[in-house]
Amino acid sequence: MLKYVLPLLVCVTCAAQSSKPGLTAAPQVENQKLTASLEAAHDRTPDDAMERLRQQQVANVVQERHTELQSDTEKLVTLTAELKQHVDKAGINILSMDVIKKAQEIQKLAKSVQDKMKNAY
Questions:
Q1: Per residue in 78-91, is it b (16+ CB within 10 Å) or e — as a string?
Q2: Distance between CA atoms of 121 and 119, rounded to whole angstroms?
Q3: Mind spelling out the 3-state secondary structure of the chain?
Q4: Which pTM value belongs to this model?
Q5: C-alpha–C-alpha distance, residues 21 and 17, integer Å
Q6: ∠ at Cα 60 (58, 65), nearest 5°?
């Protein structure tokens, strides 16, 4: 926004000075050069800062996704171990609701991990 306001202020200042009698064109040229150099410096700084901010945000998102994937896979390992214990305890002809619920929970979590990995990039 400053890059739009700054030239406007300079133009208004130049117009006000040009309406005053006795002023030469040299100060106006100096003002224009100063404004141009300020705009050039201002244009580089926000772009660089925005790029660094964007890179930092991307790095934070990648780190957060990696952390979520680690915790989800640890949860998957725990759930599968629990499912194995429940299946080992159950008899040949007995199917417990806990086993079914555990299997569904594992399926949902595995699908979630798969989607996160597919949408990684």
A1: ebeeebeebeeeee
A2: 6
A3: CHHHHHHHHHHHHHHHHHHCCCCCCHHHHHHHHHHHHHHHHHHHHHHHHHHHHHHHHHHHHHHHHHHHHHHHHHHHHHHHHHHHHHHHHCCCCCCCHHHHHHHHHHHHHHHHHHHHHHCCC
A4: 0.52
A5: 8
A6: 95
Count of Cβ atoms closer than 10 Å to residue 102 Cβ: 19
**pLDDT by 10s per residue, the chain, length 121:** 444 434 444 454 544 454 444 444 556 666 666 666 666 655 555 678 888 888 999 889 889 888 999 999 999 999 999 888 888 887 777 777 888 888 999 999 999 988 888 876 5
Rounded to whole angstroms, the Cα distance separating 121 from 117 reads 8
Task: Report the C-alpha gap between 11 and 4 in whole angstroms.
Answer: 11
Six-digit token pair at 116?
């996160």
Q: Rounded distance, CA 71 to CA 58, Å?
A: 20
